[in-house]
């Protein structure tokens, strides 16, 4: 039995579609055929979801409650955990959520369960948050500068997760770095967006401080942490590519143009 958490999110929803009939953990009913209502913050609600589960696909924000999920998984005899982490999950990261990812990864590794970690680069789906600004102003602002980024479609992360969840033993103890096929800048995002929509799109470079203020005014969660990430992207934090998608799936990941054609044209 496979259990998928975060099953209504951008990775989880696609993973469930690819896996077929699996059990899902959701906070609110979504109409799934084998879904269990539960909450990471209430460990007592997890038991029904974890009963008879062999493989846990753990998707969700880097919150301390994931520790409780892992502890309950051990108690229920889960054998393998596939977890979506961060590519820079280290204890001394300047970004708080990356430090939390590192803590959760360490707990998983010490749990006695087999594990596989998926460490994606910047999600292309994050670009969709730019749509209202582009529609209203003909462009968008960002503090990513001219940083080159190996952006990946979250659907491709889901494809890797689904492939591993169906045959986890072959991937035990591995960490897979996941990227798209190319390094792109936000200036190229503007050009490709314009090409997909047939309308000009301006890329406006702003400082990290200005970007944080914009995100705070728009009510973006973790605006300070997000501003740190964009500042790091400007410095080259996302300028890396990996062939791990092909190694796991045997296929090629989607590029930016294909992604925007699906979502923006």
Automatic annotation (TrEMBL):
Gene3D superfamilies attached to this UniProt entry: NAD(P)-binding Rossmann-like Domain, UDP-galactose 4-epimerase, domain 1
Domain NmrA-like: 2-232
SUPFAM superfamilies: NAD(P)-binding Rossmann-fold domains
Top-level taxon of origin: Bacteria
PANTHER family named in the record: PRESTALK A DIFFERENTIATION PROTEIN A, PTHR43162
Protein name, entry field: NmrA family NAD(P)-binding protein
Organism listed in the record: Amycolatopsis halotolerans
Upper classification of the organism: Bacteria, Bacillati, Actinomycetota, Actinomycetes, Pseudonocardiales
